Structures
1.
Amino acid sequence: MMAECLEKFTVSLNHKLDSHAELLDATQHTLQQQIQTLVKEGLRGFREARRDFWRGAESLEAALTHNAEVPRRRAQEAEEAGAALRTARAGYRGRALDYAL
């Protein structure tokens, strides 16, 4: 009688251990897939932010060069170059924050 009860108890415990092991394996597999997806998407976003950052840097450099080359006696052209420079600086600043964060 006692041996039968102990045998049933052992079988039941082994079944629970097997169930827990399966659950643990399934959870690890799911988490691994989700982490890989998250990392992949994060890297893609980082690459895009880096590309945008360098485009902004090139745009700022072009605006700086143009602003430096404009003769100041041409007020209208100098004003437009200054406005373009301010716009390029603001865009570069935003892209730099996106890239850094």
2.
Amino acid sequence: MLLKKCAMAILIALTVTTVSYSADPIKLIFTDQQFEGQWMRKVGLRFVELAEEKSNGRIKMDLKLGGVLGDYMALAEQTSMGSIDLVCSAPPSDLDPDIDILWLGFLERSLADAQMLWDKDGDLFNMVDQIFAKSNLKLLHLSTDGWLGILVRKNANIFDKINTIPGDAKGTKARIPPSRLMQARISSYGFNAIPIPFSECYTGLQLGTFDFKCGTVVDELNVFGDVSEGFIHTHEALEKVCILMNLDKFNTLPEDLQNALTAAGEQSQKESFREIEAFTKSQEQAAIDKFGVKIKTLSPDSLANLYQVGQKAEWTAAEKIFGKEKMDIVRTAVAKLE
């Protein structure tokens, strides 16, 4: 009888210990490189809120924001290796050349198109998730922080002269992100495309190293507004926002916590597509009020011409980079929108 009571006591103690341990929140390091107020920061924090809520507090995010652990490429590399759990960033192309497909332009004609095109259950999301898996990353969220356009340097005195692209301002030095797709796209506009890291853009605009900063979203005007003459909407592409998690870490989590993270990614993705347009307009007005920048959109005829020339050049380059199989998936997905 004594032995039986002892055995029961040990079993109860073990059970209590197990319950207590499983109830402890799992702490995950969440990072970004963004400035306060930028859309990508807002998207990331909304995902964090939803993940903690949907896990009933069993997930607790340890926030390391504003690039305190490095720039977005360094953060993606650390997430891939597992020293960071999650990162919210633009597509980290340097990890794998195939990730560059997220910079592909001339896909979406509207935000509604984009939401359907990049739906979590769609072919493109699944293709990109598989690409990230090669770098030991799990794609939880894929949305946008706005249409890419062209920021024109202050004192360049060419903003008002640019009404047709390709055509106007041929040969102008234009900063691009280090992307082969952007190289093909911006070169097709007749500009002199120069890959320059984001961290060097402010100084480059200040010193006149280049006159155009291509691949720019509107909320960057609040970063570069004092060295900018204006912003030209080209609607060539939507810059993508990715929330990525270390795949090994994701796979070790209980299924209910995996589901909580996946659900947080899906809900925050839908909200981002729904709310980005109003945010963009508010950022435009803020930049006009604060810095006096000019903002314009090319005429419909110029946009149609830019779309035709740019898509031909970029998609031809893309097939050489990514292969026919991936581009056929892209073409099929885009065709469903028509």
